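Predict the 3D structure for this chain.
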Amino acid sequence: MLNDLISLTKPRLLRLNMFAALGGFWVASKWDPDFVLMIWMLIGSTLTMASATVVNNYWDRELDLKMERTKNRTLPTGRMEPITVLTYGLILGIVGIAVLFMFVNAISGWLGLLGWFVYIVIYTIWLKRTSTWSTSIGGISGAMPPVIGYCAVTNEVDAGAWILFALLFLWQPAHFWSLAIRRVEEYREAGYPLLPVVKGIKRTKLQMIPYVLLLVPTVILMYVYHYAGIYFLIIASVLSLVWLYHTITGIAAKNTEKWAKVNFLISVNYLMIVFVAMIANTAHA
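Done. Predicted structure below.
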């Protein structure tokens, strides 16, 4: 049962978001962190994000049965009762939000609550089943972790918070669509109106380009506003241009499966390397 409780929180996604939250905290701290505050921020934001993924599992349990990738999850296989999972998710959320409000600050608490609401109500319950905009709008929740981490230190939503938000918000659609392109038939059979299902793969490839393109000025702004140093600028700019180039080549790519797989791998490594560079080079900002 413990393994099921952990798997319901989608640990891989959770780790990525925790790292993003830590990155935002470190940028604001400029290598002079309040470790107690950092621990409370990580606990609160992680529990809040875990709550959102657990409730997402509860709401999607019937659709998960229709996809090869998700049919072996806890609820589709009947290893736990739906009401137990929902209760578990809500408890995680209540505790997580409470920690942010009580031990971090009100701004971080409200941001956590906003991210939770967008992911569950706007994305999972509404748009995921009705609109191709689910990926883009749902990106609001995915962009919250670094902003929560940043605002835990600054206690205000300033330019740094908005730039970090933009970085994660712009990263998500291209990252997810490269996966969706590879699994388009699964999503079609399950009834998800994702962009490649509704508008086609070619349209999806084209729509990925502006998101990746806008990452270039976003990382430049991190340097211009002195949130990160010159080494970050060089590394992040080069990686953004490499990802942009590969995304553009998708238009003429003959082997879409291979192209999408490589693009997905680039996106995963892009985020990790950019945040590592951001953290490492914050001291020189």
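The longest helix spans residues 256-281.
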